[in-house]
Write a structure and sequence with these properties.
This protein is an alpha+beta fold and about 325 residues long. About 30% of the residues lie in helices and about 20% in strands. Strand 11 and strand 12 form a beta hairpin. It is globular. The protein starts with 7 loop residues before the first strand and ends with a helix.
Length: about 325
């Protein structure tokens, strides 16, 4: 049995109080919302904080508010609540789909959208018990000096494995962050880094407060696609978000494609719009976009599934997404 280590559990009721606790116990504290990823990682001794600061009781971090052409979603809103929200389903169906594709129903009711945005990157050599990691030899991400994915590598390439960020990036959303020095907004496109050890542009004492999403223009259609070993619960082997805008003639006026779970951060797939702009989404156009995406994507061996197969599934997911949009 994997047991948790001793720690002190704090339950602040205000954001200011939570930030003060994070500052007071800096270096030995972590925030916790749903805990669906953090608690298993603590059992594996990937994190051993002496203090946990609970966020679910803070009203400032709750709510789904529509207005002025935008929607603001509080960070501790559960994935289930966001994915089943009537207005999210109507205006941001790909985001709703991404929320409802996370794990199983029990974990979606506990896991939060802020926690999903801040999900720790994953790797087959990292997400293991302490005994397993010690026997193999620790890795760059935790207690070691070697990368087992890229021999001789000096930068961690653990995979970004969250479902909602690709959709949020394609929708040009922003993350609201609060910290000791005040609040700021960061585009989701600039929120992540290529460093798998800490792939977020946040300081340890900061918190994600909300995500702010502009409502799509008329004619916008979107799709979210996910590849995983078991459709009921597993982390993604590949994530894909596509957001297009069609003109009055049904021709593509804009196309954004974001892919994730290949490396340490979600990234836009370049040049795919060239084959689509000004055209209807006919089978030949869809095939051209899918082929361009295939050329742009090169998975790493950071997940226990064949990297070549994952790459071969890129155009499959692209076709599924564009056929859904065209329909």
């Amino acid at each position: 049995m994997l047991r948790l280590h001793p720690y002190v559990y704090h339950r602040p009721r205000r954001l200011e109080e939570a930030l003060e606790l994070l500052d007071r116990h800096a270096g030995d504290v972590l925030p916790i919302a749903g805990g669906t990823d953090l608690v298993p990682n603590m059992k594996h001794r990937l994190f051993t904080p002496g203090h946990l600061v609970a966020l679910r009781g803070i009203e400032e971090l709750k709510g789904v508010e529509f207005g002025n052409g935008r929607v603001r979603i509080g960070a501790v809103e559960s994935l289930d609540a966001v994915g089943s929200h009537a207005d999210v389903l109507e205006h941001l169906p790909a985001l709703a789909a991404a929320c409802m594709e996370v794990s199983g129903p029990q974990l979606r009711r506990m896991g939060t959208i802020g926690g999903n945005i801040c999900l720790d990157s994953r790797c087959t050599y990292y997400n293991q018990t302490y005994f397993w990691r010690k026997a193999l030899g620790f890795c760059l991400k935790k207690e070691g000096e070697l990368c087992h994915v890229v021999p001789g590598g000096t930068r961690c390439v653990a995979a970004h494995s969250a479902d909602t960020p690709p959709v949020l990036m394609a929708l040009d959303a922003q993350v609201e962050i609060a910290g000791p020095d005040g609040s700021r907004k960061v585009p989701v496109a600039g929120f992540f880094t290529s460093n798998g050890i800490w792939n977020r542009r946040m300081e340890p004492g900061e918190l994600v407060v909300a995500v702010d999403v502009p409502l799509p223009e008329p004619g916008t259609r979107m799709s979210f696609q996910k590849l995983r070993s078991r459709a009921s619960i597993d982390f993604p082997l590949l994530n894909l978000a596509v957001v297009t805008r069609l003109d009055d003639d049904g021709k593509v006026a804009s196309l954004e494609m974001v892919i994730s779970a290949l490396s340490a951060y979600p990234r836009r797939v370049g040049k795919v719009e060239e084959a689509a702009l000004g055209n209807r989404l006919t089978p030949s156009v869809i095939d051209a976009v899918a082929e361009q995406a295939f050329r742009q994507c090169h998975p790493l061996k950071n997940i226990t599934v064949d990297a070549d197969w994952r790459r071969a599934m890129v155009p499959v997911l692209v076709r599924r997404a564009l056929k859904e949009i065209a329909a």
